[in-house]
Design goal:
This protein is an all-alpha fold. 59% of the residues lie in helices and 0% in strands. α2 (16-37) crosses α3.
């Protein structure tokens, strides 16, 4: 079971499609940064991305800049 639930995540990013895309983008950034530093992650990148969204550390507005780098 996904923790936090999709319902909880949709309180932060209300559109499901956008939520999935934001989580995927963030997971790729996390994985790339870990790879560049040679760090082995203890959790999967998608789990870390979901935690970022659920905690409010990451918003859809912040993620909109990731593809423009």
């Amino acid at each position: 079971m996904l923790e936090p639930s999709v319902k909880e995540l949709m309180n932060v990013i209300p559109e499901r499609f956008y939520l999935v895309n934001i989580a995927a983008q963030r997971a790729r950034v996390i994985a790339d940064e870990a790879d560049e530093r040679g760090v082995q992650l203890r959790e999967k990148p998608i789990s870390l991305a979901i935690q970022d969204i659920a905690s409010g550390r990451l918003t859809a507005y912040q993620m909109s800049d990731f593809g423009n780098g």
